[in-house]
UniProtKB/TrEMBL annotation:
Keywords: Aminoacyl-tRNA synthetase, ATP-binding, Coiled coil, Cytoplasm, Ligase, Nucleotide-binding, Protein biosynthesis. It is found in: Cytoplasm. It is an enzyme of class 6 (ligase). One of its GO terms (molecular function) is serine-tRNA ligase activity. Pfam families: Seryl_tRNA_N, tRNA-synt_2b. One of its GO terms (cellular component) is cytoplasm. This is Serine--tRNA ligase.
Amino acid sequence: MLQVPFIRQNKELVLERLALKNFKEPGLVDEVLALDDKRKRLTQEYDETQAQVNSLSKEIGKLMAQGKKEEGEQQRAAVNALKEKLGPVNEALNATEKALHDTLVKLPNLPAAIVPPGHTPEENVEVRRGGDIPTLAADAVPHWDLAKKYQLIDFELGNKITGSGFPVFQKQGARLQRAMIQYFLDFNLDNGYTEYAPPYLVNETSAFGTGQLPDKEGQMYHATEDNYFLIPTAEVPLTNIYRDEIVKDTDLPIRMTGYTPCFRREAGSYGKDVRGLNRVHQFDKVELVQIVHPEKSFEALDEMVAHVEKLLNSLQLPYRILRLCGGDMSFASAITYDFEVYSAAQQKWLEVSSVSNFETYQTNRMKIRFKEANGKPQLTHSLNGSSLALPRIMACVLENNQTEAGIQLPAVLHRYFGADKIA
């Protein structure tokens, strides 16, 4: 959530940055400022009236002590009249504060200065590539055929049990899934992250804190009776661990990692691009979250990008890194780098990770602060990234490593899987 003082002091910059994000309601900026002006007027009126009540109340006691009962009763009547005035002012103030909050949360985060302009994924900027794209045999097949051949994943069974987009991993497929989760977690732990196993459902406050609400309610599964939301990513519970906390500056950076299943409705997804593991409603993912000093967040962003890149290199997968343009970024992000791996059998790039800096957008919602040496609390910055999302990684591991003798697995997975290939 943007901060009102910043909007007031930098209105033209805010409008310029919102335009870069292709935001369609710039008039909300003026609404925010008008509501903030009204809030200030009502606050001043309330405070001045309350001060009069307090002052006159003290006078009543003095008058009564001096035996000036009639004057005291007159003052009492004046106090009662002022108190009656306070009620409507307080109601108007509460309504204005709510309207200000409800309007403010409709504004997305501002893109950072290095975010490129653009409206569509085709306008994202490629930063670099790594790995070698394999040359497959003429009879190579996509992962959904490999899953059937080696009995790794049963898509029809998932459809029977739940519905489309809920695959059932089995036998060597289930073992490979578990092996990759364990490897990703160990890789993160070896690089200074602390592991958490958070809940898979969160309350409305937590979903609001990371920006899923009110922006993405249509994409989240909602347990309506309890008003809980199934998490779309471990980012939500992990970041909320520090909601309403004030940490010491010496505690920063805070690095967290965790494995969870993730649940996304993906409304409107259809067609050939959603076959197999390309787009599912439930999937496993290992997440990274950092809470850092505001002066160090872009340094942390570079570190996280390098971390995910190193992980992909260890899996020997061809990848590319994209800096997203303004129009392709999420509502809450200030800057995002997407990682895509190349599916040699499908001959297309598949997104497997997003690494984002949210600056103070999330921490302002969650009131995650730190104290500097002067003791004044300030908002931290928050970042997160996938390390990694499993479905498309598995798809590319299967497709890119298929041979006549089986699927040769990357060396780093051998000890976790218990074998060097799927046969």
